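Subject: for your reference before the review

Hello V.,

The reviewers asked for a structural picture of the protein, and I figured it would be easier to keep everything in one thread rather than splitting it across files. Below is the amino acid sequence we used in the manuscript, unchanged from the supplementary table.
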Amino acid sequence: MTEFEFPKDFLWGGATAANQCEGAYDVDGKGLSVQDVTPRGGLAAPGATSPLITALPTRDNLKLEGIDFYHHYKEDIALFAEMGFKTFRMSIAWSRIFPKGDESEPNEAGLAFYDRVFDELAKYGIEPLVTLSHYETPLHLARHYNGWANRKLITHYEHYVRTVFQRYKDKVTYWLTFNEINSVLHAPFMSGGIVTDPAQLSKQDLYQAVHHELVASALATKIGHEINPEFKIGCMVLAMPAYAMTANPLDQLAVREFKNQNYLFSDIHARGKYPRYIQRYFKDNGIEIQFTQEDEAILKHTVDFISFSYYMSVAAAHDPELYQSGQGNILGGIENPYLEKSEWGWAIDPIGLRLVLNDLYDRYQLPLFIVENGLGARDVLVDGPKGPTVMDDYRIDYLQQHLLQVGQALKDGVDVLGYTTWGPIDLVSASTAQLSKRYGFIYVDRNDDGTGSLARYKKKSFNWYKAVIASNGRSLFEQSIQ
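And here is what came back from the structure prediction:
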């Protein structure tokens, strides 16, 4: 690698989730997912007696239509190819394959849809990176089993992953088991399909659900390697570095506790066993995991790489009440006075990405994959010389500064497989269910009130990212925003 170039096989691309872009929520036999009854965003977790548990989808839920990738996938993939994508991260909607989640036979129409998508990607030489479960637990599994709080979900997930691994074993190489698996601690309904009111959800039940997911993830890794030894299977965690507010040792301890809460998930995926530090936490909180000998054997099937999302960092303190609370992607933390913020209050910290890369690689010595990173903003469509566009220099600057830090991490010796920006095309926000919170290089004409033509328009960042990929990162060092 020269000073101005990323590794020659670096996987450049973008990332989406089925529930945020596909739409077609009731087309071709698809069942409902937890997302279909949360029109205000996935963080609006229901309680045990909430009407959301028995609710039907309502038309004010933008996720029901999304950006209609289900019917526009050829057009969208052609635009990704025009940018030069080497990979495209997407998810399979579990309820499109098994509408209720616990059937014995899959829905052939759902399987056939993803065959068409993978074939279209192959036409352009784009490598699919597929998330098996991206905040899309079938609603039936939430209502009737209480989601991952119930051990039976391991069996239903196993049946699902065997089905898709076998079906697409010659079309997909890179897989992720769960999206941001550590987020279940903070968003149990969205992340784990757990319908118990969060205020009533005991730590015992929450960490038992965590255990079920971790066993299921390791089981998927085992099954995948058996079906096709060439599969590359990774875990996916929400990465959020934390800085101590002061040099007070108690604040330093608060940072360690925050980090360990998230390291728990990657430690088990990468090392195949529970770390020592969690044992004290379990003891102090009266948690006794129902843990079988079979579970212990399954957990030893570790991942091939670690992937993560990175949007922001947080600050931590022993007494957080003394400081201004921050906002963020599920985890808020304390507001860092040294950092600028996005329109949604998320701290902008490019150097934090370099820190995450070095910390994870030093800890595990496994290849890393940045599978989400981007800036949500209120874009304004304007007339350009070639038609409607968005002059999103702010997005270009954000991504450029983060990618420069990825380059620094590569110089540090970190093994980075690739980088997929979150939302290469505008899609519905997971946390707020808005479309006005836009991330893409491609503008989609759809508004928060559901109006719009769904037409696609290239933003200024489209050609910027195209140049980054074409130069394999050299343009990051050579060009400034025009």
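For the response letter, the relevant points are probably these. Residues 14 and 421 are 4 Å apart (CA to CA). The radius of gyration is 21 Å.

Happy to draft the paragraph if you're swamped.

O.
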